[in-house]
Amino acid sequence: MFHHDALFIGPQRLEGDLCMDGHARGLVVFAHGSGSSRRSPRNRQVAQTLQHRGLATLMFDLLTLDEAEDRRHVFDIALLGQRVLEALDALPASVRDVPVGLFGASTGAAAALVAAASRPELVKAVVSRGGRPDLAREHLPLVRAATLLIVGGSDIDVLELNRAAYALLSCGKRIEVVPRATHLFEEAGALEAVARLAGDWFVDHLRREDESG
Question: Which pTM was predicted?
Answer without folding.
Answer: 0.94
